[in-house]
Design goal:
Its EC number is 2.1.1.163, 2.1.1.201. This protein is of the alpha/beta class and 313 residues long. The chain has one domain: 3-Layer(aba) Sandwich (Rossmann fold). It is 37% helix and 19% strand. Helix 7 packs antiparallel against helix 8.
Amino acid sequence: MSNEEQKPTHPETATNTDKVSPFLTSPLPEGAPQGQQQSLEQRLTDTPVTGSIPKYNLPRGANTGNVGATTHFGYQTVNSEEKAQKVAEVFHSVASKYDIMNDLMSFGIHRLWKRFAINMSGVRRGQHVLDIAGGTGDLAKVFSREVGPSGHVVLSDINESMLNVGRDRLIDAGCTNVDFVLANAETLEPFADNSFDLVTISFGLRNVTDKDAALQAMYRVLKPGGRLLILEFSKPVFEPFSKLYDLYSFTALPIMGKLVANDSESYKYLAESIRMHPDQRTLKGMMENAGFQNCDYHNLTGGIVAVHRGFKL
């Protein structure tokens, strides 16, 4: 490890208050009012992550002018308007096997990467946390415990299938201070300015079409004095290690994806999207351009992953 300067429709009344889930049989909202707390009776649902890939009604995105008519989807060139849909289809496909694949692909090391990021968060009792692209809720679950009953966590994702998995997992764990909101990282429209003490995005920024817009939205919703943490795949710092990592990524990952999730193409996209993501120094500069100060990053596992940190002062 090295350091660089360094409405919904109203749910039916529940009959079993022992079960806990956020939105009954109603679809996840595209922007529930911030801080909205559902009663335990309202948190009853069982939404399976199965079936054909839907056409998503994705939350509206933003455009800073830094993204043209076309952009990259892995190594493919696609229309910018189509990327969010294509990414949504990838994560719908892998949602039910997402956690087990993370363990297999990283040999369990992703848990240490997330623990390091959480230790850097400085989260405290009573604080408000927004976990963007929070998926299956690994970070949100810990933040829920750390902020306590006087605090609040919002688990946000653009992908309904991933958000359903995270919702069920956290509700089963008894996390009653968490809301679940379908939102686009490029706008974070449901959330008011200066709302959160901590904003995190873990392994999600590389899938965002307009990263500059997303960073500006994150800056907007942070309170003065708040911090942003980005945990993301990055660029290995040792060339021999980088070549070995490429070999593993483009051969083993698609094979594991096919065997475990019956989907090799999504894991081929995963490997390609990592290579298209900005490197450590570039992302640090993008954060500074969005207004963040005292930005730094920490390389983990030889730069395979980096944790970037910035403050709204």
